[in-house]
Amino acid sequence: MTSDDGARPQRTDRRFTGDPTRARLLEAALDSFSTKGFHGTSTRMIAARAGLSPAAVYVHHRTKEEILFQISRDGHQEALDVVLAAIDSEATPPGRLRAIVRDFATWHARRHTLARVVQYEMAALTPEHADLIAALRRHTHNAVRGVVLAGIERGDFTVRDPESTTVALLSLGIDVARWYRADGAWTPQRVGEDYAELALRLVGHSPGASRNQDDEASLAR
Amino acid sequence: MTSDDGARPQRTDRRFTGDPTRARLLEAALDSFSTKGFHGTSTRMIAARAGLSPAAVYVHHRTKEEILFQISRDGHQEALDVVLAAIDSEATPPGRLRAIVRDFATWHARRHTLARVVQYEMAALTPEHADLIAALRRHTHNAVRGVVLAGIERGDFTVRDPESTTVALLSLGIDVARWYRADGAWTPQRVGEDYAELALRLVGHSPGASRNQDDEASLAR
DNA sequence: CCTACCGATCGGTAGG
DNA sequence: CCTACCGATCGGTAGG
């Protein structure tokens, strides 16, 4: 075992930075948006959960929607960063796809509170904010599709339709936000490992069947 | 071509039955719940969309939550019926799994308005209603898991973990409700066919590799 | 199935 | 960052 892999305990999640009171309000809003939804959450509930008066919300944020936007943008950026870092961590399409799906699914489990707001509260954004979020989502989608296409090009993957396969790969991770429970039997890492295996099956990758020998290095663990 | 398969045009979806005014209210509620969510929908919006006065909602329904429950229960029952009918339509685990995922994904695309309420508005139900819905969901889950386990038993499927594989198979269909757009490039049938192929990959089914020759009958199309 | 209305709560602001 | 308050809207009901 190396010193910094595998069985390390749950790392501290990166939370909202900057002014602590502002961060407490964002945390309170995140918790409530995640379980009750944006429209099921009042600004008074957010304030109360942060231990402040109802009006304190408007000291730090102009509107309730702007709070949602901050949370959604940060969350989308985190998810995108996870995918880009996974791609950078490996050299071949099979290695990259495995890392993407493992880390994307793990992120949706570990950060399921945030991920639920990210994936299921987009309809409450203003059109302008929705456009900014949509750009981040396209970036993530295109990054995954690029790896799928590269794997097909190299003969690593056997895929009938790259578009529906890309959607399916993303769906596996995204839907984790819906069903994952912190008190359930599965750790985020376990979900990630299982889903990474399933991802390689989805793209028809059988180790040793590709044209490129250097795949094996990225598959060894 | 046989007379009643394949290219038949979109069939008329089964809608709410019984009293027409009541059905109009349920349709109006469904449309609004689907795009704005339960908490983002007022009873006045429902009434207006049905062409009635605000109080008319309470002629046919006791509370707003009861409207959601009716829609959610009917929708969950439809989805369960789709899965059970798919199982009945085939004799072998590979045939059954293909039919399940094809029809489950097709249903989530064709009925994406209803499916969004079914999959994403459960948190707004009363605890009693949530329990009834949970039983329908367990029934669906267990039916799919049974086919996965039967396929493993027969040697048709090679699966590392039946539980996470079952969750993944259901996730593929459920997440269709989130991303499917009626004005997009894909027909519900196309989504279903693509996803059925992916499902057999997920369970490690390679035609001809199983111990049972009669699989081929269910795979021929 | 309608008009008219109930108390409660909403997002947001004035003023300090 | 608080108290106090604004008009608007909410789910639901009385009475016909």
UniProtKB/TrEMBL annotation, chains A, B:
Superkingdom classification of source: Bacteria
Coiled-coil stretches: none
Gene3D superfamilies named among the record's database cross-references: Tetracycline Repressor, domain 2
PROSITE patterns noted in UniProt: HTH_TETR_2
Region of interest called Disordered, as start-end residue ranges on this chain: 1-20
InterPro entries membership: Homeodomain-like_sf, HTH-type_TetR-like_transc_reg, HTH_TetR, KstR2_TetR_C, Tet_transcr_reg_TetR-rel_C_sf
Domain HTH tetR-type: 19-79
One Pfam family in the UniProt entry: TetR_C_24
Residues within the DNA-binding region(s): 42-61
Nucleotide-binding recorded as keyword: no
Recorded GO MF terms: DNA-binding transcription factor activity; transcription cis-regulatory region binding
Keyword terms: DNA-binding
Tagged with keyword Acyltransferase: no
Protein name: DNA-binding transcriptional regulator, AcrR family
Species assigned in the record: Thermomonospora echinospora
Lineage: Bacteria, Bacillati, Actinomycetota, Actinomycetes, Streptosporangiales
